[in-house]
Each structure stands twice: as C-alpha cells, then as structure tokens.
Design a protein that fits this description.
Strand order of the largest sheet: 1-2
Shape: globular
Order of helices and strands: HHHEEHHHEEHHHHHHHHHHHHHHHHHHH
Largest sheet: 2 strands, antiparallel
Strand content: under 5%
Distance between the termini: 21 Å
Structural class: mainly alpha
Length: about 550
C-alpha cells in the first residue's frame, strides 16, 4: 500500500502520445519551469475549464470540425502543463485533485477522438431541459448553453424574460450548425436522438403557453425563431435517418479505456459484465428468499388515491430521517429533510406509473434512500468544497460511480442496517430495484460491445426486471438505454459504484477494527461526503491510503 503515486511513468506514456500532436515539443519547453506546487494545479484547472468551454459561432457554442481541430492543438499545451506538475509528496487529497484534472483532460481527448457526440449524436443538440438533474450535472453529453426551464418561474418578471430571450436565441444558430457537424453513422443514436429534438419543439410550445397573454413581442419572436429552426432540424434528421447504418457502441477496448482513464473505474468491460451478472443473479435469488421468509405476511397494497399517497410519503420520509438519526447511521443536517421533501412525488394513476413509481406506491422508502442524491446536491450548494477542483460538477459525468453508486448502494446498506425491520415486505422492493439496475446496465454493456442493438439491450432490461414491472414501460426503458448508449458507463455506474462503495466500507472498517475509538457508520458517511463527488476509486485512496486502484488505471494506459 502506498500513499504517493509517482506520475512520471504515466507522464512518459503521455509524452509519447503528445509527441504526435503539433506543438507538443514547444509546449514541453514552455512548461519546463512550471512549479510543482498545488497552486500551479489550481491555476491550471481554472484555465483548463475556461478552455474547455467553446467560443461562440453566430451566438451558439462552436462545435464545428474546424474549431475542434484548432482546440486539439491547443489542448496539448494544457496536457503538457499538467504533466509538468509532479504531485508526489503532496497530501493524498491534493494528489487526488491532480488525478481529477487528469481524468477531465482524458475525457476531452476521448471525446475528440472517439465519442464525438456533436458528430454522432443528435441528442447532443437538445437545448431545453425541463428538470433539474439529481446528480451534479445533466446525465449524458450536453452542450454548453442549454436553457434550464426548471429555473424559471412563470409569469416571468422583466429580468427573467430577458434571460429567457437570451437562452432562446442560442437555439436557432445551434440548430443551423448541427447538420454540418452531424456527419456520423451511428444508427441507434441517430434515430433515438430525433425524439429529443422533437420534444424540444413541444417544450417551446409549452414555454409560449406558460408565458401567457402578457408575453412580449420580443419573447414571442424568439420562441417562433427557435420553433422554426427546431422544425427544420427534425425534418433534416428524419430525411437522413435511412442512410444511417453503423453501430453506436464503442467496442470493448474503447469502452474499457474510457471507463478506466476518464471515469477512473478500475475494471474492464468483461469485469463489469461479470459483476453485473453476479448482482443480477444475487438480486433475483435474494428476492425469492425474501418472498419465502415473508410468505406468511400480508402482501403490500398500493395506495389508491392522492390523499393516501401524500400520507404514506410523509410518514416514510419522517421515518427515514428519524431512523438515520436514532440509529446513528448518519449525521442528519438541517438541509437534509427539506432536500428530501422537495422530491416526495405525487400520486400517479395505475395505468401511467413507471417502474419506480410502481414501487413507490407500495412503499416509497427504498426510492427515498436513493434520493441520497438530493443530500449530495444540498451539500454542494450549502457547503462548497475546500478544493476549487471539487467544488462544482466534474465534466463528462465523471462523478457517476460516486453519486449513482452511493444512491444505489445505500438502498441495500440501509436495509441491512435495519431500516425495514418494521416492514419486511419492503426488503423485496430493494432487491427488485437492484435487479432492474443490474439488468439495464448489463444490456448497455452488450450494446457498447456492438453485440446488441439498443432495442435488444432493452429486452434484457425488460425481461430481467422482476414481476414484469418494466413490461409496459417502454418510455422509461428507451430513455434509459439511450442515455447509457450516449454516456458510456452510466448505466453500469449504479452497480459498479455500489460495489466500490461496499468495498470501501469493508477496507475502511478493517483498518479501524482495533482502534481504541470505534469507527462508526456515521464516521464512514461523513468521510465519504467530505471527499466530494469524485470517482469512488479516488475516494478509496483518500480515505484508506491504498492507491492500488489508481496504479492499476495508470498501468493500463
């Protein structure tokens, strides 16, 4: 076990890679005198983030081939600056920050070389988001100037109307730019992405309706221009769709490289398949054992009306928060209960319930434990991290194993710790939710290996979800499988992150087993939260001093 990783071996590989890039040699000379200080890293991070955000072209972010060709040459300078900073000897937390910047730069490199969402994925050009993501940034590749509709309150004030107009004016030039950029041949991504742009048209109609009779001429004009440009892009995408015949998956080798070097997941494609298959089998077998144990108990009955749902939601949230405090599972902060209660949900008629709300109408507590997400976001908002590198959302969904893995992991952890002792039937719901997440992730792995189409991956998702709860929910299945094809590793991060979280708990508690002062669950979750929304492998290193995962990742490069 080592607390310091030398970056020199990794740098040798990177220097070889950079040698093929224009300006690499001059970049190395320019950065020869760079300091090895942590301050140099934070300065680089600020410059890097400014560079990563593209310049504007006709009022919209520039994703043209010409811009990326020039940016990739400039990228070599940032890569060389990072390689010139050797963090050996720094505190582990600061070394972790070096690796976060390294991961983001690897992500930029991979997007340029392989993923190319602006070339392969029409959904990249979706500009209107109606909801706040429950993780630090929107899931999947997202352009840099989206309209966050959920941040607006209607009727709009004068200032908010001007903000809306500014957001809307990005849409027409971006829609016009898209056909020149979208030269890829990924059929599944193309066909699925058309739906995103069609939905954008519906959202524009909704904005006009929500604005009401008092809407200004300027806002009406901005909406109309965005509607027309969106219609034109949809028509072009539909016209081009029959010619798109290529695969959408990355292939096993590229998938593994991306997961290891960008998301710092110390696993290969095959290792992920083995883990998700094991978790799928374990979830099913555990469900059947739970059902046997509970065979003498009454079946759970779904609430029948809004009043019953509201009462059940309130009681479940209160019971969860009290349990966390009374059983000394977590330090319950003042912002946690309000963060949870903003997302308790509402009654949904039987015929329109998706998978998660089928379970929630029996007992929403398992879903509310997954809403650890909102506690994460409350902490990001109310307790900004001391490190500027960890203060906001990491690029390219690099946070996925930490945020999705923790939200999934605590579902089972809290169950084992006794959350459902008063309601054993709800343990069955936990296993059903794990099976669904393992099944959908397993399907996504085969889609990225190009061994299944997106639709075929969806059949794994549907067929292996217990009780047929995905059988009539085509919209949710399509949304999830499309996201996982767009964002490699996101579909598996729920289960891979859960595994890494469980392993972290095991290793951290083993280290403290003989300590004079007991190490508690409260201590564990406090340390986890303090580390921030960064890959679990890096959290493992910071909390345990064990850098073996990171050494494995660097060696694989």
């Amino acid at each position: 076990m080592s607390s310091n990783i030398t970056c020199k071996s990794a740098s040798k590989v990177l220097v070889c890679l950079l040698a093929t890039l224009p300006l690499a040699a001059s970049c190395a000379e320019d950065t020869a005198t760079d300091s090895h200080s942590y301050e140099a890293l934070t300065e680089l991070f600020a410059d890097w983030r400014e560079f990563e955000s593209p310049p504007l072209l006709d009022g919209a972010p520039d994703y043209t081939a010409e811009r990326f060709a020039a940016a990739y040459e400039e990228f070599a300078r940032y890569r060389a600056r990072l390689d010139a900073i050797d963090p050996v000897g720094w505190p582990i937390a600061q070394q972790v920050d070096w690796h976060i910047v390294n991961a983001e730069m690897n992500g930029f490199d991979f997007n340029h070389r392989v993923l190319k969402p602006w070339v392969r994925d029409p959904a990249f050009y979706q500009s209107i988001w109606t909801y706040q993501s429950d993780v630090p940034a929107h899931e999947g590749p997202t352009h840099h100037a989206v309209l966050e509709l959920w941040t607006y309150e209607f009727p709009l004030s004068a200032d908010e109307e001007q903000r809306m107009i500014g957001d809307l004016r990005v849409i027409p030039p971006l829609m016009r730019q898209a056909p020149g950029n979208l030269t890829g041949n990924a059929r599944d991504l193309w066909v699925a992405g058309i739906r995103n742009i069609r939905n954008q048209r519906k959202h524009l109609d909704s904005i006009l309706e929500m604005a009401g009779d008092g809407v200004s001429g300027e806002l009406t004009e901005a909406i109309a221009e965005a509607q027309a440009a969106t219609d034109e892009l949809v028509a072009w995408l539909e016209e081009q769709a029959p010619s798109k015949t290529g695969p959408s998956g990355l292939g096993k080798d590229q998938y593994t490289w991306y997961q290891q070097q960008v998301h710092y997941l110390p696993m290969t494609w095959k290792e992920e398949v083995d883990l998700l298959q094991r978790e799928l089998d374990r979830a099913w077998s555990s469900l059947k054992l739970e059902e046997h144990r509970n065979r003498g108990l009454p079946q759970q009955v779904a609430v029948a009306n809004p009043e019953e749902y509201d009462r059940l939601a309130d009681e479940s949230a209160a019971r969860l928060m009290a349990w966390l405090e009374d059983e000394e599972v977590m330090h319950v902060k003042d912002n946690m209960d309000p963060a949870l209660r903003e997302h308790l949900g509402v009654f949904v008629p039987v015929e329109t319930r998706n998978f998660f709300w089928i379970a929630a109408h029996l007992d929403p507590t398992p879903l509310y434990t997954h809403f650890y997400h909102w506690w994460d976001l409350a902490q990001i908002r109310d307790e900004p991290h001391a490190s500027p590198i960890r203060r906001g959302a990491l690029l390219y969904n690099i946070f996925d194993t930490r945020n999705e893995g923790t939200a999934t992991g605590v579902e089972e952890m809290f169950m084992h710790a006794g959350l459902y002792d008063v309601n054993p039937r709800s343990r069955e719901l936990v296993w059903i939710m794990l099976a669904q997440r393992a099944a959908r992730g397993l399907g996504s792995l085969y889609a990225h290996a190009n061994e299944m189409t997106m639709a075929e991956a969806g059949t794994v998702h549907v067929d292996w979800t217990p009780r047929g709860w995905m059988g009539t929910e085509r919209e949710l299945m399509e949304f999830e499988q499309q996201l996982y094809l767009r964002q490699p590793g996101y579909g598996t991060s729920y289960v891979t992150g859960k595994y890494l979280l469980e392993r972290l708990l095991a290793h951290r508690t083993k280290q403290t087993e003989n300590d004079e002062t007991p190490y508690t669950l409260r201590d564990f979750y406090a340390e986890l939260n303090e580390a921030g929304s960064v890959p679990i492998a890096l959290v493992h290193w910071q909390l345990t001093g064990d850098d073996s995962d990171v050494r494995k990742i660097l060696a694989a490069r």
